Write the structure tokens for this entry.
Amino acid sequence: MAYAYLFKYIIIGDTGVGKSCLLLQFTDKRFQPVHDLTIGVEFGARMITIDGKQIKLQIWDTAGQESFRSITRSYYRGAAGALLVYDITRRDTFNHLTTWLEDARQHSNSNMVIMLIGNKSDLESRREVKKEEGEAFAREHGLIFMETSAKTASNVEEAFINTAKEIYEKIQEGVFDINNEANGIKIGPQHATTNSTLSGSQGGQQAGGGCC
Amino acid sequence: MDKGYISDDHIIPCRGPHVSSLMLSVGFNGTQESLENSDDDEEYLGERAIDEVYHLWCLAGGDLEKELTNKEIIQSKPPVCTLPNFLLEDGESFGQGRDRSFLLDDTTVTLSLCQLKNRLKDVAGEAYYPLLEDEQSSLSQSNSSNELSCTVTLPLIIRERDTEYQLIRIILFDRLLKAYPYKKNLVWKEARVDIPPLIRGLAWAALLGVEGDIQAKYDSIDKDTPIPTDRQIEVDIPRCHQYDELLSSPQGHRKFRRVLKAWVVSHPDLVYWQGLDSLCAPFLWLNFNNEALAYACMSAFIPKYLYNFFLKDNSHVIQEYLTVFSQMIAFHDPELSNHLNEIGFIPDLYAIPWFLTMFTHVFPLHKIFHLWDTLLLGNSSFPFCIGVAILQQLRDRLLANGFNECILLFSDLPVHLAVLLLLFQLFCLRLWNPDLFTGRATCPRPII
């Protein structure tokens, strides 16, 4: 399908916080209470519209276990956006955010937009991390923040789309060099300003997220 | 990744009867029926173990649930009548009595062996006592019926449902396994033909070379003291092959936890990586009532096929493995290899779950069983062949597509592959494959 831009996202965070469920809710609009664990990386894709433009999101869903960190690091390269997820019912997943953030900052490009997500907001009775704490952490580290529930779909669309909006704005401001694919953005065949022909679209993917 | 959460007909009936019927004692009786050679049959069948007879009885068309329904022991209620009257937020329910089928019922139900006997009436008495010592006696000769030798050429799925064929195979394997390790070579030889599902757990153990007092070893491992890995195991088990009734049962979870902990505790130089749970699943399923054997099989499997994969820092091992795999693709299919490299679809993005779990993370159990029946006959380079075989199956679609389509294709497609086709490919590739090419530097020694 034709698109104006392709953004590469990466979802990171501790094991069992609901990364794959967020992705499934976003791409398939469904919730699977028992989701297979992720080994290495899995993928999802969806088209969204921002400012009248079709934008394709290519989402890399990574393994959360500590051991996989060395493998996961190679997936950061070329990501335009990252969803950093913790579980509001498990404080340890919140405490680990700093190391995740260090990892993300160190292995991605400096303009990557990071969205902090407190997932499982439907489990209010088991909450261990206050919403204010999430907000404070996001403020301190310059992240966007949102609480979501992959189960009820609350804020899931918003989380993915707001991140895309932020990236889109950065493109408009000229912060992102869209011709450098290491930034995780690719111009699609639909984009009016490029002179590439339609047949160039497949070729354009060659360097896309692929070499990461 | 979707693993085909459908109850596939290929799934072999588990060794035990259905959970609801475990509460009952079930007996067999064939005396009411007078068949021509019923006396002989009964004598021979009577020599076999009850789980064998039950397995064959099922293959011959027996349906325990139907029998119990006919006896009105299982009574189906309309689903609307099973709803509780009151439900709390945490899932506790009120106003609904416990289902009768979960309670102990010591009624004895006698099942008729008539159908099974009728099915086996042409099997000669000698078939129950095959000669093993005579090197010349092959399967076809040891049995008077020529039909059986024809059966060998039928597809695996059909063979696994053929009552006579399974009877002969089970008897043969049973005798060979009782003489293990003395008859090890013959076990290998017969396993190349096929492995009867009923015997699979023990046959795999023999192929993996499990020996010694495994129960004592397993018992001596401390599986109770909390360890740091506990939490991870706790999170992973409820996500591992949960479409299966055994593995999703509370008892299944408890066994899972014990076997995994036993492995972690007894391998201090290695660590628990996510994926180890999937790797444990086929062994646990096959040896559900013998945790020690499940543990012993897993412990024997890992050094053979996943040497050093579970080191704390395994990045070198994985990188090396994936590099060899890339070379294999390039060797067998340069065109596909070039295409995949061009679009950046490298093994790092899709093959880690394949190899780290030996495909147990990407296939449902009934497919894993057939895949591993073959894998266990080979050395540590067999997994590469399976990987290349999968790529070969998807070749046209991979060549026609770019990066985005390929990654999505791999998110759910490999699980729909017909395993038989895959195995066929596996053998083809194997014939082609020069052994030295796949030799892994980290492997301590050639296995076969």
Strands of chain B lie at 25-29, 86-87, 93-94, 108-112. The radius of gyration of chain B is 24 Å.
